[in-house]
Amino acid sequence: QAQLVESGGGLVQAGDSLRLSCATSGRTLSRYAMGWFRQAPGKEREFVSGLSQSGATTANADSVKGRFTISRDNSKNTVYLQMNNLKPEDTAVYYCAATGSVRSILYVPTRRFDYSDWGQGTQVTVSS
Prior knowledge:
0% helix, 11 strands, 4-stranded antiparallel β-sheet
């Protein structure tokens, strides 16, 4: 299993940017499809952004398209989520997830049940 540690969360104002990081240890990042999920109080955990095992394919939730970008640095075994033009509705705990079981190296899993490894989460709060 991959050990995942998120960082980079915080309190920002609407329109600001944040970059979340997910550091992995124990396994080679390029062997995993990676995803970012978020969970707001009283709501279910939802998919935000994902990256295929190959790194060639990404997927984003409609609510963050054009604002959030997922990327990775294999040399640092770290995945990033660049979040621009943040909105109050982006407030949530953000989780990094990984899975080594994918149907294709180009496939981006978007369901939480597709992922086997999870980080502890990092809080993002956006004030209006």
